[in-house]
Design a protein that fits this description.
InterPro entries: H+-coupled_symporters (IPR051084), MFS (IPR011701), MFS_dom (IPR020846), MFS_trans_sf (IPR036259), Sugar_transporter_CS (IPR005829). This protein is globular. By secondary structure, the chain is mainly alpha-helical. Helix 1 packs across helix 9. It has one domain: MFS general substrate transporter like domains (Growth Hormone, Chain: A, Up-down Bundle), CATH 1.20.1250.20.
Length: 442
């Protein structure tokens, strides 16, 4: 890759890492601050309350997807990326200073809710802006490799969060962590976002977007009207995201809680399992992206869906009885290797479906809707099954979602060879031979 392209990927990834550090820190530290915002009682009920607020953040993502996707298509990818990190910084500050239940009653939970709404707004636009930016900034023959850094950076954000959690667990008492130590990562996130804001102000716009500046369809850029001209592709994004997002959040944000709350592992051990598994997971994303540049996107997506459909129930069952670090790590790695077939390339697959003038919104809104319905609710659904005494039902739910996406992957066309500058415009969407749609011809 040229040096300019590497610079664009680096700046886009660095911001994405901070965004997702703040997003995932909420989930990974929930076991420590759940009791701070809700009345004392059953620990599972407290976790369900915090998981409910976590899910609410996802339901704000479609709004963020629409608003920031529109900005990304009309004002540029740089403008959208700069705004998303500003919103994330503000939300991190709010959580860091939120009053506890003992001080303000449910007032602290309200502050937590507002912060999560801001995070949802921010991440709703961040995913699409980042996916579009990384895909457009890369050479045509290396889009899979370049876009894989989205999940490298997303996972790196979680790794940093888990690493900080491990350090705090080993340097602070459990009482101190539950009392005030959980606020530290949110302060760190706010400071990191401020640094990335500075970096993104000087980032370069993509050549693909700049080449579309004189497009005669400027008035329709980033509009629902323009997106509706590509409604088949938008529905395709929802369907192909369904299985991947449920599996991803199951084995990342929910894994630590599952290992500690269901498998009975100490919190420190559960955190270390997630930390080590995610390091390997991040490392293999570019490798899978490179494979997709050679053999296409569909083979990886199909491999993921088949693996998730048939392996989720056995993996989740064995994880519950893992008993110690090494078996839990091995099973977690197996699950994440399977998920890599989706995470490494889903960004470029979605971006490759839409023309430049609607690409950010086309990725953002349908993806955010799918995440609100399936990704954001995964943890809450898992805890609901547990609270109802049928915890094993959640694994079947994850497998079922993967099976639905498998059907989509089998029927969709390959997107690897598409020229981003020549994907159909809204005016010519009826001639959709140059965009990927669900078709029985496979």
């Amino acid at each position: 890759m040229e040096r300019q392209q590497w610079k664009k990927i680096w700046v886009g990834s660095a911001g994405n890492m901070v965004e997702w550090f703040d997003w995932f820190v909420y989930a990974s530290f929930a076991t420590y601050f759940a009791g701070s915002f809700f009345p004392s009682g059953d620990s599972t009920a407290q976790l369900m309350n915090t998981a409910g607020i976590f899910a609410v953040g996802f339901f704000m993502r479609p709004v963020g997807g629409w608003l920031l996707g529109r900005i990304g298509d009309r004002k540029g990818r740089k403008a959208a990326l700069t705004l998303t990190v500003s919103l994330m910084s503000a939300s991190a500050v709010l959580i860091a200073v939120a009053p506890t239940y003992g001080v303000a009653g449910y007032g602290g939970a309200v502050v937590l809710l507002v912060a999560r709404l801001l995070q949802g707004l921010s991440v709703g636009g961040e995913y699409a802006a980042s996916a579009t930016y990384l895909t457009e900034a890369s050479a045509p023959s290396r889009r899979g490799f370049a876009s894989s850094f989205q999940y490298v950076s997303m996972t790196a954000g979680q790794i940093v969060g888990l690493g900080l959690q491990i350090i705090l667990q080993r340097t602070m008492s459990d009482d101190a962590l539950h009392s005030w130590g959980w606020r530290i990562p949110f302060i760190v996130g706010a400071l990191g976002a401020a640094v990335v804001f500075y970096l993104r102000r000087s980032m370069l716009e993509t050549e693909v977007y700049e080449a579309s500046a004189d497009d005669t369809h400027d008035a329709d850029k980033g509009t629902i009207k323009a997106l509706w001209a590509h409604k088949r592709e938008a529905f395709l994004v929802v369907a192909l995201t369904m299985g991947g997002t449920v599996a991803y959040y199951t084995y990342t944000t929910y894994l630590t809680k599952y290992l500690s709350n269901s498998a009975g592992l100490p919190k420190q051990t559960a955190t270390l399992v997630s930390f080590c598994a995610l390091i390997v997971f991040a490392a293999i994303q570019p490798l899978a992206g490179m494979v997709s540049d050679r053999i296409g996107r569909r083979p990886l997506l199909i491999t993921f869906a088949v693996g998730s459909t048939f392996l989720t129930v056995p993996i989740m069952t064995m994880l519950k009885h893992a008993g110690s670090f090494w078996p839990a790590l091995g099973l977690s790695l197996l699950a994440l290797v399977v998920v890599t077939g989706y995470t490494s390339i889903n960004a470029c697959v979605k971006a490759e479906l839409f023309p430049t003038g609607i690409r950010a919104l086309g990725v953002a809104l349908p993806y955010a809707i799918a995440n609100a319905l399936f990704g954001g609710t995964a943890e809450y659904v898992a805890l609901w099954f547990k609270n109802a005494g049928i915890e094993g039902g959640f694994a079947w739910y994850v497998a079922g979602c993967a099976a639905v996406s498998l059907i989509v992957y089998l029927l969709m066309r390959e997107t690897r060879e598409l020229d981003l500058n020549k994907v159909s415009t809204p005016a010519s969407a009826s001639a959709s031979a140059s965009v990927s749609t669900v078709t029985t011809s496979g």
